[in-house]
User: Fold this.
Amino acid sequence: MPDLTSQIGTLVRVEGLYKAYRKGDTTVSVLRGLNLQVEKGEFLAIVGASGSGKSTLLHLLGALDVPDAGAIIYAGQRVDRLSVTDRDRLRNTAFGFVFQFYHLLPELTVLENVLAPVMIRYSLWQWWHRRRHWRRQALSLLERCGLAARRYHYPQELSGGEMQRAAIARALLTGPQLLLADEPTGNLDADAATQIMHLLHDLNRENTLTIIMVTHNWELAKQAHRMLRMADGRLEPVPGRTVPKVPASLGAYPS
Ligand code: ADP
Ligand code: MG
Assistant:
């Protein structure tokens, strides 16, 4: 029996988040008192105009940047004021990132790309001792993402959809609980986008992977459990899409 208690409850809570970018005497105020609560196992889609602050929010949630004010609580722990070292550790273990342009390294094979995030963590000696374990993990994830046969190929030998599947395998290598996906289908044709969405939905269901996805595509966003729109530096419900479809096994959704 899997331990379901650890899969129930709130994974991310954000309270009164503020973020502005300053350059010279210009200030761009992006997030203005944003609140958000995401349950474990939820698949949340965020839509909003270009420049509305969606990527800024994902960067803050993923500890790539720090807010000016407000609190980010991850798995019950305040994470917006961590030291740089603790932030790095959290980012490397708790979160997976997927981006619009894949960010694969062109000189590495698919398998090496998936392994790269853990390889750089270790000394050569440490890596030598752990390589079998991580290689097994990487191959099993590539298998799951339908890319095992392409493991020795280079990114330029893959289609956009295949590159994104490699990027998803890489994002999941360390077993994160939360996947942050910034326009993951933004550079793909409709068929490839559908395949990526199927993969994300399957991973969400099978592994109770919590997903926060930013997208321009309302059709894809509507497939998520819940959809929110970024406007005026805050998240607001989308009319007709306010009822979450969180699986019953995850418990009641707080009002
Ligand atoms: P979105 O992802 O919704 O398109 P972003 O979060 O990327 O929006 O950007 C929100 C606003 O913040 C935009 O006006 C953008 O120009 C500005 N911005 C983003 N990053 C920076 C930065 N590093 N320095 C200055 N302005 C930035
Ligand atoms: Mg963006």
Remarks:
- Strands lie at 10-23, 26-39, 43-48, 69-74, 77-78, 95-98, 178-182, 210-214, 226-231, 234-237.
- The helical segments are 54-61, 84-94, 110-119, 124-144, 160-172, 190-207, 218-221.
- The pocket of adenosine-5'-diphosphate (ligand 1) is lined by residues 21, 23, 28, 30, 48, 50-56 (CB under 6 Å).
- Residues 248-255 have pLDDT under 50 and may be disordered.
